[in-house]
Amino acid sequence: MDYLQAVVLGIVEGLTEFLPVSSTGHLTIAEKLLGLSTTDPAVTGFTAVIQMGAILAVIVYFARDIWRIVVAWLTGLVKPELRGTIEHRMGWYVIVGTIPIGIVGFALKNVIKNDLRSLWVVAVALIAWSAVMVYAERRGRQTRDEKDLSLRDSIVVGVVQCIALVPGVSRSGATISAGLLLGLDRVAATRLSFFLSIPALLAAGLFELKDALGGDIGGGPTLVGTLVSFVVAYAAVAWFLRFVAGHSIGRFVPYRVVLGVVLLVVLATNVMSAT
Questions:
Q1: Domain range list for the chain
Q2: Is the pLDDT at 224 greater than 90, yes or no?
């Protein structure tokens, strides 16, 4: 991988990680267009590592919130009177909500890295999950905000997050849809989605770091891709939070469906191979 390819993939990752369009799906498409092997361990490792740049963007953007959550959670362990605050509860929600994807991701890591890295999977998932997003927007009551979050919410959203291990579904699309169906408003569902992404994607990036650095890619392109991902993702997070405050995530559905259909046509006519 050269530096230009690393920059392109960093931009794609930063733009798509937190929008409900599937970063893994877009990275798979971009890797194919750049002539890279989507099943090469070094490439899949690179993909996971540059996600850490996007996660760092979330950490920086929500630094004050994260600090309050960490302090409140630690303090609440020894001061029972503080355990009812949303900050202390959010600490537990993130921990508990991350457990499902940790278990499923580790158990199915080979399936995720190999069998699911197919553009057929991406195309079908882009189209199929779009229907769920539309349903969630239509059925979600959006009568609960962040202070109304419960442990049940974090467990349900955490379980649904596992579905996003399928390329094309979109982690944010899956978790925000789950939050809406639980009655959360878009901002609360989106913030919970972002907080749950931090440990999940950091763990995935650290786990794959050895493959990215030990393969043909090397540290230079990996560092550049990660830095580009950070800068672009920070801007995307800031924009998306403003967007969901007044707009439906269904706005992304036409794009998802068109991209999915185009992929199906391209694959069916052998213009591009699926893996």
A1: 3-268
A2: yes
